[in-house]
Amino acid sequence: MSLPKVFDPRAFRARFAFYWSDFLRANYRNPEAVAHAFGVTFQTALNWWNGANRPSGDVVALAGRSFTDFMEARQ
């Protein structure tokens, strides 16, 4: 009998764009502020804001502890 997986990486990957969008909406006033904070184009910031795509790891690292705290609070 195998034990059920507690953490499913594929499911997390599929939901990550929505987690990131929620984080941005909770911490920035609009996509323009996101673009400025992370040094990306407005279109990229808007896509993140709307949950259409997710950032790469280096961008998540730039968010720092505030993103970690946000994710820990979701559990």
Descriptive tags:
0% strand; 5 helices; mainly alpha; 75 residues; 69% helix
Descriptive account of the structure:
- The chain is mostly helical.
- The chain has a domain at 23-74.
- 69% of the residues lie in helices and 0% in strands.
- Helix 2 (31-38) packs across helix 3.
- It starts with 8 loop residues before the first helix and ends with a helix.
Task: Detail the topology: elements first, then pairings.
Blueprint: H1 9-27, H2 31-38, H3 42-49, H4 57-63, H5 65-74
Helix pairs in contact: 2-3
Would you summarize the structure shown here?
This protein has a domain of 52 residues. Helix content is 69%, strand content 0%.
Fraction in beta strands: under 5%
Radius of gyration: 14 Å
Q: Strand pairing plus helix content: what structural class?
A: mainly alpha
Helix percent band? 55-70%
Tell me the number of helical segments per DSSP (H or I, 4 or more residues long): 5
Secondary-structure element order, N to C: HHHHH
What is the distance, rounded to the nearest whole angstrom, between the alpha carbons of the first and last residues? 28 Å
Mean pLDDT, rounded to whole units?
92
Q: Count all strands and give the number.
A: 0
| Largest sheet properties | none
The gross shape turns out to be globular
Low-pLDDT stretches: none
